[in-house]
């Protein structure tokens, strides 16, 4: 067990209740494994934090970082200044987002930044084309968009804003396309997709279409519990947005670059967003980096504005950091060369099936769901009513603790256990994760 730091506040825990903190201390990583302080190698079932997509300790990425440090460790890109890596990465990302037709990239240091950029740029777009009254955002319950004030305002779980309110005005939330729990008790995917799209349309009309800037959502909700929408959901959402001119922002911070089994989450449904937010898998977390990508419509709207509303008065000191861009170029080469989206689809399907076959019969397992290498186990006190376990009961933590002892890191998040390993995993890691979780349920869910 690790010594706790007396000088550190960890994210997402109460600093005054140390008993609620994880005891894990990670000192090394290699491939799909990380080593704890006690020297045990563990399957990294959380992929760092949904982000170490190419695995730990990859020579290609480390060499690119070292070479970049030798060449140029940092220079800004404000006011039109540039450097080679940021230009190469921008070209690569725009190329990779074909056929979605994205056109321009803005950089930042992570997912919350990328979301903030998307929200601000979408408002700027409407100002630039003379519709400044379009300022509202519609988002989904259970959605997670980071922790800045913009992201906290569109987040669909109040725990991320309660302590920091008041948040942005003009942010409203509608129901997620969640087959397992939805207000209509709808169990038919096709019908649920239609109901959700109709709800979006009704909300746009209620707010006044001339006031709505954008709809923002994750292609597959991650932190909210891996909520995978029905097949018709994204195409219908795109139609509704188009009907009222509302911008569609896909928060691809988790799904971007392969995790959901296609290169981008929305691509899995054949849909193109107007704005995409990236971070995490963009360079597998070796150095902080976020990116926000806009399509031709948004780019042209802002670029062709002849007054100050066309000036992008947004950006960060670390926008396009050369070392982070070099890490991204190396990491994305691996993603493409090794077809990691394809591996995520194959291994994810195997993991999901094996988990479903192994643990579904336990009384506390409500549902095991997933897409690609995003998998969640939804824990219930009663299978029939689908009543979630008490998030304060520590039930998910107890199962994760057994899995950890058995050599696998899985992440307890309230009433769910989430699994999001590197996209490089194979059958060996899949089987270890299934066995460790089976042991967890066997011991805890008696
Ligand atoms: N958007 C989504 C969909 C996320 O999952 C996350 C982080 N898990 C963020 C935004 C925020 O990213 P970061 O923690 O890098 O700020």
In short:
This protein has 446 residues and is α/β, with parallel strands linked by helices. Helix content is 35%, strand content 17%.
Give the CATH architecture of the largest domain. Answer: 3-Layer(aba) Sandwich
Give the termini separation. Answer: 26 Å
Which residues form runs of ≥5 with pLDDT under 50?
A: none
Q: How many individual domains? A: 2
CATH fold node name of the largest domain: Aspartate Aminotransferase, domain 2
- The gyration radius over C-alpha positions equals 22 Å
InterPro entries: Aminotrans_3, PyrdxlP-dep_Trfase, PyrdxlP-dep_Trfase_major, PyrdxlP-dep_Trfase_small
Pfam families: Aminotran_3
Family: Belongs to the class-III pyridoxal-phosphate-dependent aminotransferase family.
Organism: Amphritea atlantica
Write up what this structure looks like:
The protein is an alpha/beta fold. The chain folds into two domains: 18-54 and 339-444, Aspartate Aminotransferase, domain 1, CATH 3.90.1150; 62-337, 3-Layer(aba) Sandwich (Aspartate Aminotransferase, domain 2), CATH 3.40.640.10. The protein is built from twelve helices and 15 strands. The protein has a seven-stranded mixed beta sheet with strand order 4-10-9-8-7-5-6, sandwiched between helices. Strands 11, 12, 13, 14 and 15 form a five-stranded antiparallel beta sheet that branches. Strands 1-2-3 form a three-stranded antiparallel beta sheet. Helix 2 packs antiparallel against helix 9 and helix 11 (395-405) packs across helix 12. The longest helix is centred in the last third of the chain and has 20 residues, at 340-359. It is globular. The model has no long low-confidence stretch (mean pLDDT 97). The structure holds 4'-deoxy-4'-aminopyridoxal-5'-phosphate. 4'-deoxy-4'-aminopyridoxal-5'-phosphate is lined by residues 110-112, 115, 144-146, 218, 222-223, 251, 253-254, 279. InterPro entries: Aminotrans_3, PyrdxlP-dep_Trfase, PyrdxlP-dep_Trfase_major, PyrdxlP-dep_Trfase_small.
């Amino acid at each position: 067990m690790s010594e706790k730091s007396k000088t550190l506040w960890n994210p997402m825990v109460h600093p005054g209740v140390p008993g609620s903190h994880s005891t894990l201390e990670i000192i090394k990583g290699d491939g799909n494994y990380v080593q704890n302080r006690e020297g045990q190698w563990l399957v990294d079932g959380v992929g760092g934090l949904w982000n170490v997509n190419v695995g730990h300790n990859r020579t290609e990425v480390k060499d690119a970082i070292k070479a970049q440090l030798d060449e140029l460790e940092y220079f800004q890109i404000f006011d039109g200044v540039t450097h080679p890596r940021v230009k190469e990465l921008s070209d690569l990302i725009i190329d990779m987002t074909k056929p979605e037709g994205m056109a321009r990239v803005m950089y930042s240091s992570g997912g919350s930044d990328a979301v903030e950029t998307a929200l601000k740029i979408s408002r700027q777009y409407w100002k630039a084309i003379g519709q400044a009254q379009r300022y509202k955002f519609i988002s989904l319950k259970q959605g997670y968009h980071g922790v800045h004030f913009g992201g906290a305002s569109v987040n669909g779980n109040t725990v991320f804003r309660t302590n920091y309110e008041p948040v942005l005005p003009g942010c409203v939330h509608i129901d997620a396309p969640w087959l397992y729990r939805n207000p209509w008790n709808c169990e038919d995917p096709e019908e649920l997709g239609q109901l959700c799209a109709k709800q979006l349309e009704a909300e746009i009309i209620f707010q006044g279409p001339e006031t709505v800037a954008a709809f923002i959502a994750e292609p597959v909700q991650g932190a909210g519990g891996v909520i995978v929408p029905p097949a018709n959901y994204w195409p219908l959402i795109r139609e509704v947005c188009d009907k009222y001119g509302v911008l569609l922002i896909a928060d691809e911070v988790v799904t971007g670059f392969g995790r959901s089994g296609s290169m981008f989450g929305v691509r899995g449904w054949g849909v193109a967003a107007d704005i995409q937010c990236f971070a995490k898998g963009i360079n597998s977390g070796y150095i902080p980096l976020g990116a926000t990508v806009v399509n031709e419509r948004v780019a042209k709207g802002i670029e062709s504005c002849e007054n100050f509303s066309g000036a992008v008065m947004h950006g960060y000191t670390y926008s396009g950091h050369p070392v982070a861009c070099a890490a991204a170029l190396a990491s994305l080469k691996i993603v493409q060369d090794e077809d990691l989206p394809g591996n995520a689809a194959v291994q994810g399907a195997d993991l999901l099936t094996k988990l479903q076959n192994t643990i579904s019969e336990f009384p506390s397992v409500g549902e095991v769901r997933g897409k690609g290498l995003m998998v969640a186990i939804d824990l219930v006190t009663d299978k029939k009513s689908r009543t979630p376990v008490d998030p304060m009961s520590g039930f998910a933590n107890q199962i994760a603790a057994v899995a950890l002892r058995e050599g696998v890191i899985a992440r307890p998040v309230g009433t769910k256990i989430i699994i999001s390993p590197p996209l490089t995993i194979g059958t060996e890691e899949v089987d270890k994760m299934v066995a460790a979780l089976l042991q967890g349920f066997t011991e805890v869910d008696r």
